[in-house]
Amino acid sequence: MLREVPWRGAGVAIPMFSIRSEADLGVGEFLDLKLLVDWAVRSGFHLVQLLPINDTSVHGMWWDSYPYSSLSVFALHPLYLRVQALSENLPEDIKKEIQEAKEQLDGKDVDYETTMAAKLAIAKKIFEREKNLILSSSSFQKYFSENEEWLKPYAAFCFLRDFFEISDHSQWGRFSHYSREKLEKLVSKDCLHHDIILFHYYVQFHLHVQLSEAAEYARMKGVILKGDLPIGVDRNSVDTWVYPNLFRMNTSTGAPPDYFDKNGQNWGFPTYNWEEMSKDNYAWWRARLTQMGKYFTAYRIDHILGFFRIWELPDHTMTGLIGKFRPSIPLSQEELEREGIWDFDRLSCPYIRQELLQEKFGTSWTYIASNFLSECQKGRYEFNEDCNTERKIASKVKTFAGKPMLEREEKLRNDLFDLLKNIVLIRDPEDSRKFYPRFNLEDTLSFQDLDDHSKNVLKRLYYDYYFHRQENLWRQNAMKTLPVLLNSSDMLACGEDLGLIPACVHPVMQELGLIGLRIQRMPSEPDLEFGIPSQYSYMTVCAPSCHDCSTLRAWWEEDEERRYQYFKSVVGSDALPPSQCVPDIAHFIIRQHVEAPSMWAIFPLQDLLALKEEYMTRPATEETINDPTNPKHYWRYRVHVTLESLVKDKELVSIIKDLVRGSGRSHPPLGEPDAQVNQETVGEIVEKQQPSGERIPISKQLSGVPRKEDLCILKSPRAIHEV
To answer: What GO CC annotations are associated with the protein (predicted)?
Structure first.
């Protein structure tokens, strides 16, 4: 409060798995964070942001690369273990095995399955040699006593998952239902499998030690480690096994159609039973935040909108469109009847006419109708019982694969899904007299075939449901849950508030002191095509891209029309923009963001690498971390340059540091580099740095060097406010 100008900082974002170093085994490791912190300090960054780092080992295959689908919200991921740091006395055969694994796994992308198998195999060999020494140590005993509440169930779950060869705990016979008594028997020293239990303890202990070392190093260097709090947990997780009452297991979490996916998203997580969670003042959430606070100084609340309301889907759905908000005030049957709406079966069941089948399936329509549908009225059809949900359709379509009259499986499945979604109202499965308007109902043939009166009534009720009647309810819901999170730790909380934003969200975030997120190409203002960084509010993180969208380079290349519009309206040039995001373009966009009033400007590492042509050799599309439209996306991106090389790159460091310092943002004091990096001291590096080569700007506006007159203007408080 004593500052004349609010404090502003900058940071870098990169998933843990994407980091590459000379020491790692095919994937970024917790101890690599020390090198990343060194590079951040030299570049003028106060923050390093990661994606979730919890164990996701649900399927035992590459599907587990999805970092938001936690096996446990407390356990760390074995993927990030540095096996050569498990012991100071590794025998030569294990050293050789580690070296061979390093060479084998040093690929362009993460090979999730091979990397996990190699690390666990090596860790087991070291465990057999040193288990007695480690497990009897005072440091392990202290760790165990502080974490046994979650560590014991986690180890027992991992044992049962591997024993039954499935993580679906409903398939575990008498162990399907968790109890404290069963747990103590499973982890008892007298069990034949006790060494397996101990191995899981051992791995988690070392992960804790390694991450703690990196976190302490970051604190010492004045760098904030920012973690990520996923909105959901996998339905086959330790948490749903131990606390089934906290989850609505017959539902699935997702998001309605938005910028990321016009068809909506289905993440597959069960939704939360907030009523049950409130009974112990949200103890499960408080424990999660306490655990995160051991390592992180700040955190991102994934999909903060879920604490206001969540997009809830039946567990038999595979796509994300036919959902409803929970909590929400539904349309009652009485309310609809007062408005002259009465044919509820017509509105809530798939509206399938013969003409639609002929249009969609051509000459194959009779074959489709005879196998999937029954004629309920003349020219009207309904789905058979064995294929009246998306999961049932997908299962049945597989049995028809290869039939000569049918097109490829995916298209047939999606066409049948479209028929299933051709509804106007969704009937509440728990109360048949309550209804919810189907999202984008005006797009459906079912709606288009209604009379004008019904159309007008349903349009009005649709907008009331989605944009008016829920606001107070959603505000109340958020004010019950979010303060509990915020009071559970001393970490700085940032909310990911992208997507379909209710009007109550930003006022609540402002009231609670929560920092929002601004992505320039996804403006929260409906009348803008691109956000204006100079007009962002202080309580925001601004960024040119994030892990859920294409990188700066990929975005520039993928949409010629938007690229032209950006060049014209933001850069202010009528010239034809370059087809690639050349360093001058990246420099201009990054400069816009560092000069924004936002408290934080955080840049994906890929966007920072675009500042130098040398790092643009890799195709831009390969740098994208996630594709939200693909529920089975393989999260495997690895930076194509090592951290050691980045630390040595004086030119890139100088470009970034000049941008940060020139913007007036705070930057950490320079000190000695990490002892693991045998290079010149930072002082020597600074003395030897020369200005980068003369660049030819595309326009004067793309110059990244602050002009003298700009620096003079920024001394004026009014100018600072306007910027």
So the answer is: cytoplasm
